[in-house]
Task: structure prediction
Amino acid sequence: MFKKSMAALAVLSLSAGLASASEVTLYGIVDNGLLYKHSKVETNGVSTKTDSFALESGISSPSRFGIKGSEDLGNGMKVSFQLENGFKADLRKQIAQAKAEGVSLYAMALGDLTWDEYWYKNSYQPSHYVRQMADLDIPIYNIPGNHDNDP
Result:
């Protein structure tokens, strides 16, 4: 129990520090590319050629997102921080990799889905949303927003 309380306190302290830091920078890179692959396989004297295209993440460098900053504490003291995490821009590949490693996954959709401007501009219907979420093949928990049940 004590360890959980200390971890929660550390996270809250970091959050408070981020909110009031005098210098905060969000940075990152998404590196995707279209990969063309041509292969030739010979089996029992029969040559087979295949061509394929695939969206690949991290072609030139790994995709990543980070937050860094500093705060002047006074009396010549300064504190700095940097948090960075890598990710794959292709969500389906990231899900497949996590499942293969035995990681439990779920997603949360946080409210007001039906009032989003995207829905109106693209004639998006709830059935489209259901199909896209089912395609991810992980549990999805929808949290209703204040407009999701409006007539």
Remarks:
- Residues 33 and 59 are 6 Å apart (CA to CA).
